[in-house]
Amino acid sequence: MENIATTPKDEQRLAKFEEWVQSGEAIEPRDWMPEAYRKHLIRQISQHAHSEVIGMQPEGNWVTRAPSLRAKQILLAKIQDEGGHGLYLYSAAETLGITRDEMIEQLHAGKAKYSNIFNYPTLNWADIGAIGWLVDGAAIVNQVSLQRTSFAPYSRAMVRICKEESFHQRQGYEIMAKMMAGTEAQREMAQDAMNRWWWPSLMMFGPHDGDSPHSADAFRWKIKRQTNDELRQKFIDKTVPQAELIGLTVPDPDMKWNEEKQSYDHGRINWEEFYRVINGHGPCNKQRMDHHKKVHADGAWVREAAEAYRAKMK
Ligand code: BYC
What we know:
By secondary structure, the chain is mainly α. Helices cover 67% and strands 2% of the residues. The protein contains 13 helices and two strands, in the order H-H-H-H-H-H-H-H-H-H-E-E-H-H-H. The protein has a two-stranded antiparallel ribbon with strand order 1-2. A hairpin with a 4-residue loop joins strand 1 and strand 2. Helix 6 runs antiparallel to helix 7 (152-180) and helix 6 runs parallel beside helix 8 (184-203). The radius of gyration is 21 Å and the shape is globular. The N and C termini lie far apart (45 Å). The relative contact order is 0.11. The mean pLDDT is 96. The chain binds benzoyl coenzyme A (BYC). The site of benzoyl coenzyme A (BYC) has 29 residues, from helix 2, helix 6 and helix 9.
């Protein structure tokens, strides 16, 4: 961790800050905070916001091909929700003294990351089910834990987001359950989607605890309340029985119930693939980023018009 206290006054403030955080109190934007805590949060919250917004793309791919009006309405509402989540999170990050423009610039320059999971293609309708069920399901496990994060605006955003995510998870599971109760071809599509999304979903929780460079600070400052591995295990234990209930096979030959631990053991995660994807070389990274840049440029006139309106109303 970088040395954050430089003057006696800083040291005093830092001690007070640490005491406050340890006692379980929340930090508000106007409270004094060490620079490293501020930077840590900007990194994590902005990446979280980018994930929500980039995550609209793989789902957007299916709006015009949704199999019914009902399915289309639900999908549109879900995608809009994700955009809204991005906005809460960008606003939470802005309270730390960074502008949305700066965050977008960092994303476009490849300096800010977004979730690994959105760099995979959505090839068939079951992928929309798998995203809702597995991806939103993984996100909820992570985000329920983040509801108790020490930075209050992030925590408040999480409370609101979790309410919507549980609806997303259920609609995804409904798609999968319906397809598994359908024709042979539909069952094959659902299993194929499960095979492709399972492992990247496990990667969403980040590297194993011993390989997670940010975890020590995150725990010290109560930004994270549970480790990457603890949350991943929680997701697995919750999801495997759901898969079995509708007849899906988890694509992990080493997955087995561990009676002693009362949880599932799982096979090795392909971390080489994870690092390749988060460093820009997944199947859809270029496509996702090109699309974001184009849409951002196309929308410049909206931002300019809003700015002109604001100036006129002053
Ligand atoms: N993907 O030290 P670590 C949604 C990076 S969207 C990419 O463990 P940390 C939805 C990490 O950033 C909601 N990168 O980091 C939307 C770091 O690199 P940098 C998505 C990852 O921060 C639309 C390095 O690996 N949820 O629900 O302590 C449709 C070392 O990691 C990932 C969030 O964004 C990853 N999966 O812990 C449907 C959750 N994992 O920054 C659904 C918010 C790790 O040094 N974020 N890296 O370059 C978090 O909770 C934490 O940041 C993480 C990682 C658990 C992801």
